[in-house]
Predict the structure of Cytochrome b5.
Amino acid sequence: MAEASSSTSPSAAAQDDKPVQPAGTYSLEQLKEHNTRESLWMLLHDKVYDITAFMDEHPGGDEVLVEEAGRDATEAFEDVGHSDEAREMLPKMLLGDFYGEKKTKTKKAVSSTGGSTSSSGFPIWVVPVALVAAFLAWRVFLA
């Protein structure tokens, strides 16, 4: 009975395991191939853009673009706070939609007490507490 359930050939089974990529879409592997100044693609909001021709015009310089090339740059794009004018330029560089899974980034560290820490592990809450303590000490000594 076990033989009856495996009626497909090995080549057919291999084809079923890998979904077919829709036309006009780009995978993470294709995106990663374009990470140089000569061919620079980036992923923004699940859309793939070819920004090679724009590198010389970018107000922040080409280094920031090269740093994010060939991967999902959505977070970096939004963190900078691009203008409406910059967003209006994107459709001219659009290649197509993204297809597949993106690598997930790790979340920022949270200490066991629930407070945030900086990248060096220093508790962030110490700075404002120290500033308040210094102000109070200054007021007490001058009063």
